[in-house]
Amino acid sequence: MPKLKVDPKEEEIRQLKATIAKQTNTITKLERKVEKQKTTTALIRCPEGQGGRSADRGGYNTQEAMGLKGLDEDYNRRCRMVKRYIHEYLSVFKPISQQDKGRVALMIIKIQRDIPYFQQFEEGWPIHDITRMYLSNEQTRRRTDIKAEKLACGEESDAEEQPQRKGKKKAQVSFAVPETDMEETDADTDGGRKRKMPLKKVTHTILSDDDDDDDLDLLLKPTKVPITPKTKAKPAQSPKKDGECGEYMISVFAHRSLTLWAKKPSKSVNTTYTSDAEGSNDNAGLEDKENHSPAKSAKLSSKKSNTATATADDTIVPPALTPPPSHRKTQTANPLLTWADLPRNCPAVLCTHPLPATPVPAILSLFQRQKNLVEANGPKATGVSFIDLEICQAISIARRRHFVMQTGEARGWPATIDPFNIRTRIFSEPIHSEILSLILKPATLTACPIWTDFLLAINHDLFDFNSSKTKYEYPQAIKHKTCGYYGPLGAFIISSSLMRFIAVNEAKHNLEQRFFETLMTTVGQDPHFSGSMYNDYDDSNHMAMKDFVSFILVPFVAICLIAQDFPGLMGGIQGAIFERNNSNEYGDLVHPEDDADEQVHQLHHENMKAIKALSTDSDRYDHLPPKKKQPLPPPSSKDGAIPSYPPPPLKHDPVSSLQDATAPPRHRKKGEPLGLTIRVPPYRPVEEEEITIDDFALPNLKTKKTPAPVLKKEKKEKAVKKEVTQAAPGRRATRSNPQNEDV
């Protein structure tokens, strides 16, 4: 079929139409982006004036300014959402002017992030208006409730205790009190005017100035607890001047104080509380009032919380409870820290971490210090913000501790350690054979990952490591000698048991010499030790057994124990090493070294006694690791000789059967204390002999033999020198003054 010829002009027109359509689509997309940017950047600004006020007072209606006029349900829903954030970030006991500006700004940012509707308003001004009105309404309701409660308490006291007395008429004043404290005023729905609430009438009697003073005492009397005066004679009271007034306080509640103005009372008399069984009742108190003319009231000071002062005919509430701190500076403010002073979240700016349910003492002490600083120098004092950062750091540490504890519970890491179980597992298979193989076989030591990590930590400077007096010069090596969730306490138990293990197997396998040969072979086979300096590796500079136990055997045994605790770990010994590294923080927190109990001390004491019974080497005791707490210290080396026989099986000592029973029985003298000393034979001074001419006789020229007296004398001198050398090797024996020789 022949192809149709296409007109070049039509093809050009088609291409131009396609280009126009493509450009039109691009223009449409750009226009949409520009409109979106305009909509995003054009934020709704805050109207002039104050929200919640009418236009006549220079304000505006917040609901109408938000564009929600007639949409009461949407407006109330968003107000409820803002109130939840107010309770989380701010204190409802303070107006917005007394709130922390940083926390208010943080709350607005959080609300705009969680509720996208408020992102269209510049600086979140509706949130600020809703917060201000809600806190203001809370303050109004709080003051109204307190006032109504005080008036109700006064009315009940007046109805119960005031007798029928003839007097002048009293004015009746009624106060409007809301029926419930759950209602709140809405300053925006009716153009800034408050919504009317159903009210009830509460009457309160106000006394005139001409009434008797006893009526005021009866009206303000808080309780029925009578007070009797002390047996001491009352001091003479000065007459009261007319018109003299003063301020005094009467305790109405256990946590509030009401300041009233009345005539100045006379001197108060210290009184004591008496019960009804002691013969005091209400009628007796009233009769005593009528017969005597005591002072009208007493001044109760918050400084004297342990003593009660009142007049002979007045009653007060005993200050049994410590009043909570007031958010305003009043005379009853509590200088101590209470739960009301603690925030829900961290006080640091831009930190939303919640405060722990049970704060540690470090956090409470920081809050107490901050409170004292604010009360002394104000909320903007120097150092308040720095204390906020310290509190934030302490909260982070507490959260980390909580996370570590939860991780340990989830992974099944033990919260307690059985020291005798650990020792039994060390002396049992297969850990027993693994330890001996690590000490006696160079191939096993070379393939051990603990040994490889140790050499990398010290940069293969084995000579320098052995010659250094302190091992803290190698922090990486110390970092690798951890025991995972067994912690420092488990490391001490393992180290003590390993030293007993070495003492038990020393005679069987000659561990000291075999260990030196193993190190020699390992050094010779390792290419890192091919230098000339390692050719002189001998007994004088090899690695000490106590260092090998501390840096190699202790973490190796801990890994073996972890592998036994979790047989399902993947990766074999590498999986156990990974589990140890992850649980180091848990072990340091749950099993610190200073947390040893009686069982740990008993086990350590048994191990030391067994070591001394099995070995006569004085350096064996030095191999034991140091301890912080030792309520059961080992026998002192100055008390006497070591026991000459293996001790009987000890309680909770399953390893005593592994002791070397082939040691010759040696008995300790009666009354001889246990201890560690070196047995030194007594020094024998040379017997004094008379020197004669025969001692200097010349040898016979024919036989060439020395006379007998000279030979006898030389033999005696050689015998004495030999005994002195064997008794105190490395020491100089003084024949002239043998008593000064240190044994």
TrEMBL record:
Pfam families assigned to the protein according to its UniProt record, in alphabetical order: RTC4 (PF14474)
Coiled-coil stretches noted in the UniProt entry, renumbered to this chain: 13-40
Main location: cytoplasm
Segments for region (Disordered): 152-195, 267-331, 616-678, 702-743
GO cellular component terms, semicolon-separated: cytoplasm; nucleus
Domain spans labelled Restriction of telomere capping protein 4 C-terminal: 477-592
Biased composition regions of type Polar residues, renumbered to the chain: 267-283
Biased composition regions of type Low complexity, renumbered to the chain: 295-315
Superkingdom of origin: Eukaryota
Record's keyword terms, sorted: Coiled coil, Cytoplasm, Nucleus
Compositionally biased intervals (Basic and acidic residues): 711-724
Cellular compartments annotated: Cytoplasm; Nucleus
Biased composition (Acidic residues): 180-189
Function of the molecule: May be involved in a process influencing telomere capping.
Entry similarity comment: Belongs to the RTC4 family.
Name assigned to this protein: Restriction of telomere capping protein 4
Annotated organism of origin: Mycena venus
